[in-house]
């Protein structure tokens, strides 16, 4: 298994590696340094796993020389790729470690190679070609349209170039949402992407929700980083309309001083909104931590095709934690809540009044909030969990191995 990120920052890869190891496969994960807090969590995570992990491409502390050369290669490749509109060196320019991942992956004579993240797309294909074995790729996002829908934008050009070059060569393709699978199906008709939802294992540390009778309604939003284009503006705007009511907003994720001063502080701007910040935590502890709150917020603004199509791990974490869910009306969210209407509510993105009305309704009707929380908890316990979804993933791998 190959990723251009770190295991603790890629819970989807970790779940797949765990599933394979649990099914009796010998699993090796090739990964790369991304940031310091991810490294801290990796040190806690990796020793507890049945699979082996190898860090590729150096880091700024232990393997400084390789890290330096990786940045030189990356910088040169980005310059050449940009000048040529992604016609040259695109596969080295997509990630600092793409070259090193490909080089390392070829050394491992595996039965199958599986890539996660677009920076790790060339590596499994090249390693599979050298060692005459199959490969697969997991599309957690609709990558070519992650940042923008402008087909002339460089980010779209480089990601499209890589997908067009390497997706036809993978033996299987999985996707994290029905709409992402549908988008790739249209681009690559013969791939028939299989949807593997980004759900989580049942968590015995999370207890069934109970009625919050008169305490503040606690709202949770989380991501790896806190910043703009994530819908935080909507919840702040809604809470400013409800300043006389009792709500607490909790934001979990890495928050830089620059973003805090230039974005968050200006957004709040001395308004009567109770906002609490939490630093990133170990992903394994996230469901139990989240269960301390009442409502989980999925506020994606739908700024790109991908953002409109993705079902983020937020929603599935909230389900495991037994939270009622309030989600923006992206296509993916709307379809999901239509399928599971008891778990929460949809609001029109950007409509602060509509969001405020949903919050006020839950505040005034706490039994209704408890019903949503219980429905979410029950849905995660019985259906939307990794124990069920992992069977689909293992079946894809087994079918690929048996047909090659």
Give the topology, please.
Blueprint: E1 2-3, H1 11-22, E2 28-31, H2 36-45, E3 52-55, H3 64-83, H4 90-93, H5 98-105, E4 113-116, H6 122-131, E5 135-139, H7 154-166, E6 172-175, H8 178-187, E7 194-195, E8 217-225, H9 232-241, E9 247-254, H10 257-268, E10 275-278, H11 286-290, E11 295-298, H12 305-309, H13 313-321, E12 324-328, H14 331-339, E13 344-347, H15 352-364, H16 366-382, H17 386-402
Parallel strand pairs: 1-4, 2-3, 4-5, 5-6, 6-7, 8-9, 8-11, 9-10, 11-12, 12-13
Could you please describe the fold and organization of this structure?
The protein has 404 residues and is α/β, with parallel strands linked by helices. 46% of the residues lie in helices and 15% in strands.
- Roughly what is the average pLDDT, rounded to an integer? 95
- Helix proportion: 40-55%
How many distinct helices?
17
What does the main sheet amount to?
Answer: 6 strands, parallel
What is the succession of H and E elements?
Answer: EHEHEHHHEHEHEHEEHEHEHEHHEHEHHH
Q: Whole-Å distance between the termini? A: 18 Å
List how many beta strands DSSP finds. 13
Low-pLDDT residue spans: none
- Largest beta sheet: what is the strand line-up? 10-9-8-11-12-13
Q: Classify the beta-strand content into a percent band.
A: 5-15%
Relevant terms:
six-stranded parallel beta sheet, 17 helices, 404 residues, five-stranded parallel beta sheet, alpha/beta, 46% helix
Give a nutshell description of this structure.
The protein is an alpha/beta fold.
């Amino acid at each position: 298994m190959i990723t251009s990120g770190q295991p603790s920052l890629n819970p989807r890869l970790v779940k797949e590696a765990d599933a394979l190891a649990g099914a009796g496969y010998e699993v090796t994960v090739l990964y790369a340094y991304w940031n310091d807090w991810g490294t801290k969590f990796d040190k806690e995570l990796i020793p507890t796993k049945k699979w082996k992990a190898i860090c590729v491409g150096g880091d700024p502390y232990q393997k400084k020389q390789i890290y330096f050369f990786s940045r030189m290669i990356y910088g040169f490749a980005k310059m050449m790729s940009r000048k040529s509109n992604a016609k040259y060196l695109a596969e080295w320019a997509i990630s600092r470690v793409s070259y090193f991942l490909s080089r390392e992956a070829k050394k491992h004579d595996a039965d199958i190679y599986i890539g996660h993240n677009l920076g790790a797309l060339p590596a499994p294909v090249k390693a599979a070609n050298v060692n005459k074995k199959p490969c697969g790729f997991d599309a957690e996002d609709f990558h070519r349209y992650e940042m923008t829908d402008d087909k002339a934008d460089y980010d779209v050009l480089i990601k499209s170039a890589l997908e067009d070059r390497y997706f036809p060569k993978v033996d299987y393709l999985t996707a994290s949402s029905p709409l992402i699978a549908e988008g790739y199906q249209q681009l690559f008709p013969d791939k028939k992407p299989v949807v593997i939802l980004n759900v989580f294992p049942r968590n015995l540390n999370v207890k069934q929700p109970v009625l919050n009778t008169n305490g503040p309604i606690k709202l949770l939003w989380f991501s790896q980083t806190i910043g703009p284009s994530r819908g935080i503006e909507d919840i702040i705007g809604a809470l400013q309309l409800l300043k006389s009511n009792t709500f607490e907003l909790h934001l979990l994720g890495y928050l830089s001083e620059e973003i805090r001063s230039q974005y968050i502080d200006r957004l709040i701007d001395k308004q009567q909104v109770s906002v609490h910040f939490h630093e990133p935590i170990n992903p394994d502890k996230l469901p139990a931590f989240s269960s301390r709150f009442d409502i989980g917020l999925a506020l994606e603004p739908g700024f790109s095709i991908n953002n409109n199509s993705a079902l983020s791990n937020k929603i599935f974490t909230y389900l495991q934690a037994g939270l009622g869910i309030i989600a923006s009306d992206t296509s993916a969210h709307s379809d999901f809540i239509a399928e599971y209407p008891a778990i929460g509510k949809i609001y029109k993105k950007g409509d602060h009044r509509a969001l405020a009305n949903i919050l006020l309704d839950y505040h005034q009707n706490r039994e209704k909030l408890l019903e949503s929380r219980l429905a979410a908890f029950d849905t995660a316990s019985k259906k939307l969990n990794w124990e069920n979804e992992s069977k689909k993933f293992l079946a894809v791998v087994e079918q690929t191995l048996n047909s090659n």
